[in-house]
Write a structure and sequence with these properties.
Blueprint lengths: L5 E4 L12 E8 L2 E6 L22 E3 L3 E10 L9 E4 L2 E3 L3 H9 L8 E11 L2 H7 L3 E4 L9
Parallel strand pairs: 4-8
Antiparallel strand pairs: 1-2, 1-9, 2-3, 3-8, 5-7, 5-8, 6-7
């Protein structure tokens, strides 16, 4: 498995945080894996967070159960947002957050360009592979971070 892989939860994960989720893996190495749930909208919009109350009412997604005090973002505009970590193709993780917010607020960036997440998913070394082997996750051949199903 590698960065840019999509995983879909199986019924083995029903009644857990991951029930009916699709995860996009952004990092996979000898330390483990990191990714984001891309298909579960967060209950509040960006401008409903106190710190960003003057921002656009942009949707956010429930990225995962880890580090839910922080915002993360994926985007496919490395030409506009500097400092992101390439994941696959033109999709990047993070970068200049202030610039991303400015571009969201002036409507340069749309939901087809950037996705905001509360929290992320994380696995220790070989943990995700074990979950795939036990049948908790299916590898999805094609997926799209920026199109919600």
């Amino acid at each position: 498995m590698h960065s840019g892989t999509f995983l879909k939860s199986t019924p083995l994960l029903d009644d857990t945080f991951f029930e009916n989720t699709e995860v996009f893996i952004t990092e996979h190495n000898e330390k483990g894996a990191m990714g984001f749930v891309v298909n579960i909208p967060f209950l509040r919009r960006f401008n409903e967070l106190e710190e960003f109350k003057h921002s656009a009412p942009f949707p956010m997604y429930d990225g995962g159960p880890v580090d839910r005090e922080h915002l993360f973002f994926l985007h496919q505009r490395p030409d506009l947002i500097k400092g992101g970590t390439p994941v696959t193709g033109n999709i990047c993780l993070g970068g200049d957050f202030r610039e991303a917010v400015r571009l969201i607020n002036n409507k340069t960036l749309t939901e087809m360009d950037i996705k905001l997440f509360i929290g992320y998913c994380g696995w220790n070394d070989q943990e995700l592979e074990a979950e795939i082997e036990e049948g908790s996750w299916e590898i999805v051949k094609e997926g799209n971070v920026f199109i919600s199903k």
